[in-house]
Amino acid sequence: MRLFLSVPFSSKVDSKGIIDKAFKSDIEILIQNLEEDGHKVYCAPAAEKWKISHDNPVKVLSGDLDKIAKTDVYIAILDNEISAGVQISMGFALANQKRIVMASPTGVKLSWANNAVSGFQNVSSLNFSFYDELAEQILELITR
Amino acid sequence: MRLFLSVPFSSKVDSKGIIDKAFKSDIEILIQNLEEDGHKVYCAPAAEKWKISHDNPVKVLSGDLDKIAKTDVYIAILDNEISAGVQISMGFALANQKRIVMASPTGVKLSWANNAVSGFQNVSSLNFSFYDELAEQILELITR
Predict the structure, then answer these.
(1) Residue A123 pairs with which residues in a beta bridge?
(2) What is the largest CA-CA distance in chain A?
(3) What is the largest CA-CA distance in chain B?
(4) Taking CA atoms, which of A3, B21, B78, B96 is between 20 and 30 Å from B30?
(5) Which residues in chain B (66-125) have CB-CB distances under 8 A to chain A?
(6) A93-97, A120-124, A140-144: which has the minimum mean pLDDT?
(7) ipTM for the complex?
């Protein structure tokens, strides 16, 4: 299946635009684990080599939205800090009636709107303690 | 025209769920000014009488999204604090190829994703210093 993985980004880079190493590694392992199961994962920051694109943000974002329109499953990682980009893409996925998986680390309290989304018929939500468990949880959800 | 006005909400209520009076008044005047020009404004928190709905969030949110699908213009008020709900609805409006107006108080720095959205062809963005000027700015944009 084609999986679109939406992850927070701006909140994970330092003032020089360098991505948090642990977060990058967590997401890369998650992508690898999903791909080893035969899926094709698109994750924008990974595709952009973990650098914020200042060149043509319109082209970058509309490219991402096109990918969502074509994906089989849309997966959002939701943190305590709300990500503008993740939320926009989730609204876009909702409008495209995609199958949605919302994944948040244990202890994260969903905002009113995200909690509402979690109750939609085409949406599953899951909590995880460690990123290396997350791939398994996602695979169990989408392949059963 | 039908206008959907998306405003931050959770960040504007206190621990008891009571809405900030000044903000409520600003938005109510904005709605009134837009309606006096002959438009029909839907603003979810105003429709919900400025109370957070705990009863059936799925029904409330999907009702809002249905309104966006039918609106002529979608207007988002963007603050420094990212609103999960505003961002979801903006993604939904983008997917529905709506005419979008992004309005932010002077001094607000748009996130990467919101800045990217502001460059889309169907999106206009404006800054305002006072809410009572905002209606005029919006009307100038959408009726010219």
Answers:
(1) A100
(2) 42
(3) 42
(4) B96
(5) 69, 82-85, 87-96, 111-117, 119-120
(6) A140-144
(7) 0.95
